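Holo prediction — iron/sulfur cluster.
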Amino acid sequence: MIGAPPAPPAPSGVYLHFPFCAIRCTYCDFATVAGQDAKIDRYLDLLIREIESFQQDVPSEVDSIFLGGGTPSRMRPEQVARLLEAVSRRFDLKPGCETTIECNPESLDGDKVRGYHQAGVNRLSLGVQSLDDRILKSVGRAHDAAAALEAAAAARRAGIPQLSVDLIAGLPGERLARWDRTLEQVAGLEPDHVSVYLLETDKDTPLARSIRHGRTEVDDDDSLADAYEKTVATLEGAGYELYEISNFAREGRVSRHNVKYWTDVPYAGFGLGAHAYAAGARRANRRDLDGYMDDLDQGIDPLDWADAWDPGRRLEEALVLGLRLREGVDLGALGARYDVDLSRRYAGAWERALAAGILEAAGDRVRLSAEGRLRSNALFSELIGSEE
Ligand code: SF4
């Protein structure tokens, strides 16, 4: 196995985190704060300072920027413009750089979309999550279904080049019949891209704790599998291609930034709790707002944790993340990057997964079958740490 990180296969990406939300949703475990808007101006000044003082070994050529949160659409367009200008001063942005901002319906209107577009944003990711008002209310979302539909329409009218919609399957109270309707309504909006995440119940959130303690009921695994299969059928029927376990896109509308996370490409991360991947090592910023800001104020790196270059671990991650993609993993190409014969090293795991119908193989490439997408966690656990 090689002793230095392999050369990155593509331009890198930049992630910027804006943690401020109107209220905190019960299922959220992101680095966010609510009720602290008085700190926004100082936070943005320090975020720009972090970008300007950036010293990690990420290639300076960048072709994707992602403003995530939190609720970045609580920023005014001129604040977004300041952030993007700071990124453009520090990195070499490629023409047509995919620039995404995450938005919530309650903080979006046409004027704001136009302002973001003028600032350089060309892709908007709208957090819809559900189109059932009871569910939205029960998990603390600050908008209803009508507001979500109106925000999507406003983004379209304002001429944003790409619109993505985020949904969560398996929220408490979601029933398959209602989920069908949500999918059909979302497809009717004709977004370029749809992300459908399954509710994670193993996190340290109020909702996950309530589920674990039996106070809130959610669908069982079979119902979730039905919902997932329904999602794939409905969105594929509406012209979307499933290109990753949770992501669907119209032709040419795959999220360039997200694909970096699954294909071992470096990215820089700035802001509260932001993660980065550079020179084969991962790191994360601290998640407490005042500590993050005080560190930067004092010229200290706001680091929470960092791991060192570990080729074995990176290879396992690249394998598992790559298998999330519809196209799967080219074992020859990935193995060459890490100087490992992956066909031989994991021969037993491949054989078992192929026999179980979890994997499909074509030449040097392996990918999850439709069945495997539902049962991928077991295979992933087997791959991580397995020495055949
Ligand atoms: S709006 Fe998004 S980031 Fe903010 S609390 Fe809700 S889920 Fe978390």
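READOUT: The chain has 16 helices and 17 strands.
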